[in-house]
Design goal:
five-stranded antiparallel β-sheet, single chain, about 20% helix, about 100 residues, globular
Length: about 100
């Protein structure tokens, strides 16, 4: 099953639950907006390790559709937190907090 978490210019993000109960965020890209080096770019992203970034769990690439699979963030996205759209936050974090997030 899948539910839309967010929609943007380049992709739609869905919450998906696998048969074993694992929840994932699946970012499905609009075909026209995807780089021709998609697979190489995703493989490079898979090597990045940072405590405040989700690891890429996998990807799917076909001529008509491309997607990236991440662990689901139950408290919302980093974007929502930084822009004051987080359901648990009254206002966006100050610059010192943003720097701590970026540096890990």
């Amino acid at each position: 099953t899948a539910h839309i978490l967010g929609k943007g210019r380049f992709a739609t993000v869905y919450r998906s639950t696998l048969p074993n109960g694992t929840q994932l965020a699946v970012k499905v890209f609009n075909y026209a907006s995807v780089s021709p080096t998609f697979e190489t770019d995703i493989e490079m992203l898979g090597t990045i390790k940072h405590q405040n970034l989700l690891s890429v769990r996998g990807y799917y690439a076909s001529p008509g559709e491309k997607a990236i699979f991440y662990d689901l963030m139950p408290n919302g996205s980093l974007y929502s937190l930084l822009h004051g759209q987080d359901q648990n936050s009254v206002s966006p974090p100050d610059w010192a907090t943003r720097q701590r997030i970026a540096l890990g």
